[in-house]
């Protein structure tokens, strides 16, 4: 284990292998500032006073190259490579995110590796949220796993999560192998500021794998609110079997003139009859939108997906102030980066 000393607390804590600075501090009751936990907001920015850290993956808008050169990192992404001393702004520590205990009331396997889980809060409790936000599932050892609300805000009776099975994933394996109706789940939320901006611009959603969960919430919310803006959803998956719930956006397109659904398979199986789009999802977007100026882009997927597609989209007119992402990376303890979901 490595030692992390937090200033101005003058408190030292032990970090497990691959555990982020933030997770190590929170697990040992240090009230560190944070919000998104996905390298996107910059609230958890801190300074490395001594020792070496791996800054991890994050969005450049949250931490500039100049700041990184000055020794600043995001505690939600960075991991200690040796004993370190970290300074954070105590005044930035936000109040604790509300915590809830709910019960699993329904489990439905949507495809071979995606489970829909419905959670219900105790009678008299409710959670208010914005479409696009997410919750952190709290594991027994204090670790967190992030999952987007898949239900829209106007359907608050249940919290709907779409959970993808990750190889070796502690929580997702539990969901698929041991979780049952009636189990209690602790979570905190709502978290994040990934939501539709108020404008008249056409909307382009880019979803990777279970990045469809926040899209579902946001699109159903948009329909409920009567938004008439043009909405195009590009959903990129490897094969046809990875495309779960395709009938839902297909129905949206039939019922709403302003909604368009474009699934894209990157590795279509030869034995599967597929007449739709193939290749990389950003290539499909650029075929349809050679000019993206005056559009809003909402990318729902991994940090790597966002880093891969945004430069191409920006080359075709997408503006920095009109590109939004809920990119979420699992901490290095899982040694993998997953699309907007916990392991």
UniProtKB/TrEMBL annotation:
GO molecular function, one term: 2 iron, 2 sulfur cluster binding
Statement: the UniProt record of this protein carries the keyword Flavoprotein: yes
2Fe-2S ferredoxin-type domain sequence ranges: 2-92
Superkingdom assignment: Bacteria
KW Ion transport (keyword) present: no
Keywords: FAD, Flavoprotein, Iron, Transport
InterPro entries: 2Fe-2S_ferredoxin-like_sf (IPR036010), 2Fe-2S_ferredoxin-type (IPR001041), 2Fe2S_fd_BS (IPR006058), Beta-grasp_dom_sf (IPR012675), Cbr1-like_FAD-bd_dom (IPR008333), FAD-bd_FR_type (IPR017927), FNR_nucleotide-bd (IPR039261), OxRdtase_FAD/NAD-bd (IPR001433)
Annotated TM spans: none
Domain FAD-binding FR-type residue range list: 97-197
Protein name: CDP-6-deoxy-delta-3,4-glucoseen reductase
Organism: Candidatus Accumulibacter phosphatis
